Amino acid sequence: QVQLVESGGGLVQAGGSLRLSCAASGRTFSNYHMGWFRQAPGKEREFVAAISWTGAMTYYTDSVKGRFTISRDNTVNTAYLQMNSLKPEDTAVYYCATATYWLFLTPNKYDSWGQGTHVTVSS
Length: 123
Prior knowledge:
Mean pLDDT: 96
Distance between the termini: 39 Å
Number of helices: 0
Structural class: mainly beta
Largest sheet: 6 strands, mixed
Strand content: over 45%
């Protein structure tokens, strides 16, 4: 398995930006597609974005299109989620995860998970 560690969360005002990072170790990072999910209090974990193992393909949930950008750098085994124009409804714990196959939007299709990083957007 791949070990994942997220970072970059914090408190930001609405309209602000954050960049989340997901550092991987263990098995070959570039062999896996990567996904970002989030879970707000009292809600189910939901898909946010995914990027293919080469970075050639990306996919976003509708609510973040045009605001969030997923990327990866396989030379440093890290995936990123650039979040702009943040809204209070983006408040959640954000998780990165690996996937063997492309493209799934449900958490049960992802294999390794990080511990999550908290994002709070104040109004």
